[in-house]
Amino acid sequence: EITVTQRDIDRVTTIDREVVPLMLRMVEGLDQFVELDVPFLIEERRNRVSNLRSLMQRADASPAEKFRRVLEAYQIENEYGRTIEGSRGVVSTADGRQITVDFLRVGRVALYYKTLDDAQIARWSKTGKQWEEIDSDFVSPIKKALSIAREQAAPDLLLLPIDAPEAAQ
Asked: For 148-158, what is each residue's pLDDT tens digit?
């Protein structure tokens, strides 16, 4: 029994040495993913990565707790891809003004905003990494989508402009 216990202890030490570098790579990968993704809830997501980095440096946190928190962050990011969300926020215009808008996030596929007076709507261009104004014909579908996201309307088919998928490399 002593031999089996000693072998198990040695295995735990080996696993601990292998898991920590894996977790560090996972946190780095998560950071890159957040920075390259559609910029929704960007401060919250950056803070989550920053908190994970701090946790990885703490000696008083167990490897199990660190791993649990890393997996939890991945689960949260995964969930963003399966949900639709409407929120209110502020956008900076090209001329430096700050305008209050309603944001619409459709999974990881698209991010839109519309001004409160419905005078302007735009979508986030993944290729251009900036907001692009879109045709005012999409005001009604975006308002409908916001109602669905806020659970004020039943789920329905949405007709919105999106970027075409790109070939993976």
From this structure: 999 999 999 98
86 three-state secondary structure? strand
DSSP 130: E
Place of tokens 């920590």: 20
Q: Closest by alpha carbon to 106, among 137, 139, 127, 80? A: 80
End-to-end CA distance of the chain: 52
- Structure pTM? 0.77
Do the Cβ atoms of 57 and 69 come closer than 8 Å?
A: no
Is the dihedral angle over the CA atoms 133, 136, 141, 143 positive or is it negative? positive
Residues 125 and 111 sit within 8 Å (Cβ to Cβ): no
DSSP secondary structure of 30-41: HHHHHHHS--SS
